[in-house]
Hints:
Layout: H1 5-19, E1 25-29, H2 33-40, H3 49-60, E2 69-74, H4 76-79, H5 89-95, E3 99-103, E4 108-110, E5 118-120, H6 126-135, E6 140-147, H7 155-174, E7 178-185, H8 193-213, E8 222-223, H9 240-254, E9 261-264, H10 271-281, E10 289-294, H11 296-306, H12 313-331
Parallel strand pairs: 1-2, 1-10, 2-3, 3-6, 6-7, 7-8, 8-9, 9-10
Antiparallel strand pairs: 4-5
Amino acid sequence: GRKDMSSFAAELIATANALVAPGKGILASDESTGTIGKRFAPIGVENTEDNRRAYRELLVSAPGLGQYISGAILFEETLYQTCSNGKKMSDMLSDQGIVPGIKVDKGLAPLANSNDEQWCMGLDGLDKRCAEYYKAGARFAKWRSVVSIPNGPSTIAVRDCAYGLARYAAIAQNAGLVPIVEPEVLLDGEQTIERTLEVAEAVWAETFKYMADNKVLFEGILLKPAMVTPGAECPTRASPQQVAHATLTLLKRRVPPAVPGIMFLSGGQSELEATLNLQEMNRQPNPWHVSFSYARALQNSVLKTWQGKQENVEAAQKALLARAKANSDAQRGQYDPASEGSAEAAQSMYQKGYTY
């Protein structure tokens, strides 16, 4: 008969454990076609399939990336693309010991009768897509849902976010993919760090309740939360110590230790902030592998170095390795900010109303 989660359980746990290897995190490179266009625009690169392939090839073929990166999330186009040497992108990753992952949601849509809130589409046909992605070499998946504090959040928005994630997680596991569960409490707004914590607690409580109802195997998932910070427009800023304290408070109150890894999203923090906050959370022991799943906070310097030019590829790959190493060090609680020779990393990447 058909394989189901029980037959995949051992494999799911093995994949999750590979993704949380000490000193390693995840490279999120699954920007949709529209979003990668926003990344290319500031450096004057046209958003064509060939340029997207060239850029993603630069990432997956960076020599030594596997020392610091355990998994890479790909957009569907990339999973099926071939590099200039004739190898599949996913094989280039596997050759470095990096597990290929896949974004499986279908993006955000307006939630009817809400205060301009959003829900995440993609459950229709998800079981078939996941089976295809598994065949193509993917071993984990990602689904990003969002919660807005300034717009509520309303009961129905939180419930839909949590229930959608739980259904996705169950479906992905039944296809052999480790689900990254990402209910992103957005940075947008003037809320204090205390208010962010309160909302995040509510979102996580519902998400775990619905995952339990859907019999999701907690040992075979990873979480991708936002760090608990003040809103981007809040006049009171928080130190890395305060962010770490609030975030670890959330995790201890809401996340069972059965969950192997917490891979934080960078969510528009500067490259430096994202690394410093991660370092602070790893200064004290905690029951999980607390690490990173960064997109902008790993790629910002890379894009600025590359500029779409073949002759800059090697320098851009070095920039990628520098960010990956900094975050690897932070995962081990051994990051030294003095090792950063650049002010570039300190620039915030926050964008109001950001879409992935």
